[in-house]
Design a protein that fits this description.
Layout (H helix, E strand, L loop, with lengths): L2 H9 L1 H7 L6 H7 L18 H11 L6 H15 L18 H27 L44 E3 L12 E3 H12 L3 E4 L6 H12 L8 H24 L14 H14 L4 E3 L10 H16 L7 E8 H6 L1 H7 L12 E7 L8 H4 L16 E5 L3 H18 L3 E6 L17 H9 L3 H11 L5 H21 L18 H14 L2 E2 L1 H14 L3 E6 L14 E2 L7 E2 L12 E5 L5 H12 L4 E6 L10 H8 L2 H5 L6 E5 L14 H6 L15 H8 L3 E3 L4 H13 L6 E5 L11 E2 L12 E2 L4 H4 L6 E5 L3 H11 L6 E6 L1 E3 L3 H10 L4 E9 L5 H11 L6 E6 L10 H15 L11
Parallel strand pairs: 4-5, 5-6, 6-8, 7-8, 10-13, 10-14, 14-15, 15-17, 16-17, 20-21, 20-23, 23-24
Antiparallel strand pairs: 1-2, 3-7, 9-18, 11-12, 16-22, 19-21
């Protein structure tokens, strides 16, 4: 078989069609060549059935029968082969005037080389992004793979892949119409072709678009990026970009100076996002857009996506904007969430449905190459976080965020694409995160190598300013004046806000880098004192079960370190990438294995997976931890359909444990409440049935319930409830509302004496102070659960009411401990009974506990409510309002005359 046929075979039947700008059906060529076959110039076997030969025959018969690009190509090949003008002839006379064998060999080589060059161009268009310089840090491959595609010319020896040699580098080649690298030139040397392809596809922009099945759209993108000189910026444009970078970066600096101890989730590392969004909006406005939807984004990542699309659709409908020429949407994503959250896929699939389309959305992905503490290599299976966008043929523009001009150009093209084709487009800003997940976080625990490089990284503002100063676009004085000008704007705005009191507090979530050794030594010191905190209690519970042959598996977002930097079950080598140690797997000679794994940024999928995992064996403790308790919202389907109803609906026992961080910490409506009311509302114990008490009442209750709901206030009780989950002779789902601030609360510690043999989980922890020693003198008995207990104890002491007010804790809320509550109420016959919670009245536990108290008390005594008033949001977004409401309900809890004269 000739080299030509080998090449044609390698390219496949589609190759020649894709090299032309329009499909040309082989059947049309065959229909035109009904006579004897004519050999393609240089074909060694004379008149085979080659696809290329048939097209050549059709051209010889009638040059107008093929696309004009092939007509030009065949004319050039014939001219070079015969050193004379091309002479297309009728088919019947071609055999009599075949070129000489040497001419055919020369022509064959020319054809093969031209086809090879066209294949090379296409290889860069398809796979050039895999070697683009996208990571500003220069340490990661944006596609998670250091592999270099074999068909990209990254070195001279790669020329052999195309049967080309170094001597061919300076030869001129005809450019196909499927590339614009030549500009107005129709031929280029191979050396120049490779250089221009490298410049377009392998620098700071990585383009994914060749999967799009529309030729016109592919040509549009090629023209926008391949045409020489398209990324030229005027001095005015560069100065404007610099000014926007100043505003983006100096605003972050201003916030850091004024609120140094507060979490900001700042832009540092992706400061270019602000100029990028401004460019999209400006460019869209130039093309007629009047309204851009940006909706407040909750921390339930990506949940906002369909909300934005629905609002955009409504705005378009009310404006009569059927084509989306006046209203558009922009969605900002995180890389881990974009890959991990199923709602992203669902939202993309709405994008072209007639009743849901918004005529194209610009998606901007802030790709800082890490999800909280989870390495992207552990967070997704796809090469890029943006691969989900390929399902709707959305072009994906990856860009190095430390190249502001590249970012601005890409965003401008993205806005044009959306306006031109009314389709989605993705801008992937490959950046980094200069600080931790927030400003109080320490990333060196888990990403030491990345953050060593980040600490040395020159900020993008300085880098770009130095570039413009070096090329005399701006002077150093002008740059400094721009900074001073914006700093004055911020200071003046800050001055105008003085009428509002702003509290400056240090958030309890604190994990400074030098503290890793401190944490480990601190645990050792605690054991010497024979006491444990929350993290150590969990460690001991897991370790003791492992010793007994019970496999323990803990998964969820950032569980290896723990959302609040308290766990540290995986230790990272500070010098060697991905070298880690899990100490808990080295506790005992014949222990069971311990698995702790950071999951992708998904709740629905991951919780379902862990539920299935727990089904496989009853001799395993399987736990899923939400990053924050309210994150279970996006896994509600799994909770409703499988966990709460598992035994009744599916006749399946399952011992899965849900760890849901919960507590009103003044951090706003997100991340505060794990929504205990939802779990309690789905509990199946009867609030109106007075129970029949017996010796086995506790176990019988647990066996009859559909799940167990607890809120432990001590590390020892957390230790015991985890062990009880395995020691019970049956399996029930366990919902644990875990603490946040109590993780480091000095009072939230337990003694070894509360965890040794003979101790167990306490469903209720009764008052054990002064009030318990003289119960007849107690005027008020406060029942509560969880963190609020420590607030109550502190306030009771402040008001010197230790002997008049008793405080009892419900540790197990469901099934309700009727027997122990009855005992506590009877112990204080003259005391008012109060239920105190930090949650709003229509949330939390009150609606669940109130009818059960009434049942056990036979409605002879009221149980008064103390807590926050009903509300729609689980917590206020204003910290001052949070503190005011806290003080208000604590005052009420200890106002011994608060309920005088009231009836129930």
């Amino acid at each position: 078989m000739s080299q030509l046929r080998l090449l044609t075979s390698r390219l496949g039947v589609q190759a020649a069609r894709l090299l032309a700008p329009h499909d040309v059906q082989m059947s049309s060529w065959r229909s035109r060549s009904s006579g004897p076959r004519t050999a393609f110039p240089g074909s060694r076997d004379g008149g085979g059935s080659s696809y290329m030969e048939e097209m050549y025959v059709a051209w010889l018969e009638n040059p107008q029968s093929v696309h004009k690009s092939w007509d030009s190509f065949f004319r050039k090949v014939n001219q070079e082969a015969s050193c004379g003008p091309p002479q297309p002839q009728a088919l019947s006379v071609v055999p009599e005037s075949r070129p000489a064998a040497s001419s055919r060999t020369k022509t064959s080589k020319l054809v093969e080389d031209h086809l090879a060059v066209q294949s090379l161009i296409r290889a860069y268009q398809i796979r050039g992004h895999h070697v683009a310089q996208l990571d500003p840090l220069g340490i990661l491959d944006a596609d998670l793979d250091s592999f270099v595609p074999s068909d990209l010319i990254t070195s001279i020896d790669k020329l052999a892949f195309y049967d080309l040699r170094e001597a061919d580098l300076d030869k001129e080649f005809q450019l196909p119409t499927t590339t614009f690298i030549g500009g107005s030139e129709h031929t280029l040397s191979l050396r120049e072709i490779i250089q221009r392809l490298e410049s377009t596809y392998c620098q700071h922009i990585g383009l994914e678009f060749m999967f799009i099945n529309d030729v016109e759209q592919c040509q549009w993108i090629r023209q926008k990026f391949e045409t020489p000189g398209v990324m030229q910026f005027s001095s005015e444009e560069k100065r404007r970009l610099l000014a926007r970078l100043v505003r983006s970066m100096r605003f972050e600096d201003f916030l850091a100076r004024k609120w140094s101890s507060e979490k900001r989730f700042g832009l540092e590392g992706c400061e270019v996002m602000i100029p990028a969004l401004k460019t999209i909006i400006d460019k869209s406005s130039e093309m007629g857009i009047e309204n851009v939807i940006l909706v407040a984004n909750p921390s339930h990542l990506e949940a906002v996506d369909p909300v934005v699309q629905g609002k955009t659709k409504a705005e378009q409908f009310y404006r009569g904007d059927a084509q989306g020429k006046k209203v558009m949407s922009i969605l900002v994503h995180g890389d881990a969430a974009f890959a991990g959250q199923g709602v992203v896929y669902e939202t993309f699939h709405l994008s072209d449905l007639p009743s849901y389309t918004t005529n194209g959305t610009v998606h901007v992905v802030v790709n800082n190459q890490i999800g909280f503490t989870t390495d992207p290599r552990m967070a997704r299976s796809s090469p890029y976080p943006t691969d989900v966008a390929r399902v709707v043929n959305a072009p994906i523009f990856h860009v190095n965020a430390d190249d502001p001009e590249a970012v601005i150009y890409v965003c401008s093209v993205a806005a044009e694409w959306r306006n031109t084709f009314n389709k989605d487009v993705v801008v992937d800003l490959v950046c980094y995160r200069r600080r931790g997940h927030n400003e109080m976080d320490e990333p060196m625990f888990t990403q030491p190598l990345m953050y060593k490089q980040i600490h040395k990284q020159v900020p993008v503002l300085k880098r770009y300013a130095d570039k413009l100063i070096a090329e005399d676009t701006v002077t150093l004085q002008e740059f400094e004046e721009e900074i001073a000008k914006y700093d004055r704007i911020c200071e003046e705005a800050y001055g105008r806000s003085k009428d509002k009191k702003i509290l400056h507090i240090k958030h309890w979530l604190d994990s400074p880098w030098p503290g890793l050794s401190r944490i480990l030594w601190g645990r050792a010191d605690m054991t010497k004192k024979r006491e444990v905190d929350w993290a150590l209690a969990e460690y001991m519970a897991f370790g003791s079960l492992l010793k007994e042959g019970i496999h323990v598996r803990l998964s969820g977002q950032d569980v290896e370190r723990g959302t609040f930097s308290h766990r540290h079950h995986v230790l990272h080598d500070q010098e060697v990438d991905r070298r880690t140690c899990v100490p808990m797997n080295h506790l005992w000679p014949d222990q069971a294995p311990y698995t702790v794994c950071n999951s992708s940024l998904s709740e629905y999928g991951v919780l379902g997976f862990e539920l299935g995992y727990a089904m496989a064996s009853p001799n395993a403790l399987v736990l899923w931890e939400a990053q924050f308790g309210d994150f279970h919202n996006t896994a509600q389907c799994i909770i409703d359909q499988f966990i709460s109803t598992g035994q009744a609906k599916w006749v399946r026992h399952n011992g899965i444990v849900l760890l849901l961080p919960h507590g009103m910490e003044g951090m706003g409506p997100e991340h505060s409440s794990a929504r205990p009311e939802r779990f309690l509302q789905m509990s199946n114990d009867d609030s109106d049935a007075y129970p029949a008490f017996s010796e086995d009442f506790e176990v019988r209750q647990l066996y009859d319930c559909n799940w167990i709901v607890v809120n432990c206030s001590t590390p020892a009780n957390y230790f015991h409830v985890l062990r009880r989950q395995i020691l019970l002779p049956f399996r029930k789902p366990l919902i644990i509302f875990t603490p946040k601030s109590l993780l480091r609360h000095p009072k939230a510690k337990s003694s070894f004496d509360q965890m040794i043999s003979g101790t167990s989980f306490q469903r209720v922890i009764p008052e054990d102070g002064v009030a318990a020693r003289a119960p007849e003198q107690v005027r008020r008995l406060i029942f509560c659960t969880g963190k609020v207990y420590y607030d109550l104890v502190k306030e009771r002491s402040n008001q010197c009411l230790d002997d008049q007010v008793a405080i009892t804790r419900l540790e197990q809320i469901s099934p309700f401990p009727f027997d122990l509550i009855k005992r506590e109420a009877e112990k204080y016959p003259g005391a008012e009974l109060v239920w105190c919670q930090e949650e709003h009245k229509n949330m939390g536990y009150y609606d669940y506990i109130n009818p059960r108290f009434m049942t056990i008390l036979k409605r002879t005594r009221p149980i008064w409510y103390v807590g926050r008033d009903p509300a729609a949001a689980p917590a206020t977004g204003n910290r001052n309002a949070h503190l005011v409401s806290l003080k208000k309900f604590l005052d009420t809890a200890f106002n011994l005359k608060a309920f005088e004269g009231k009836t129930f």
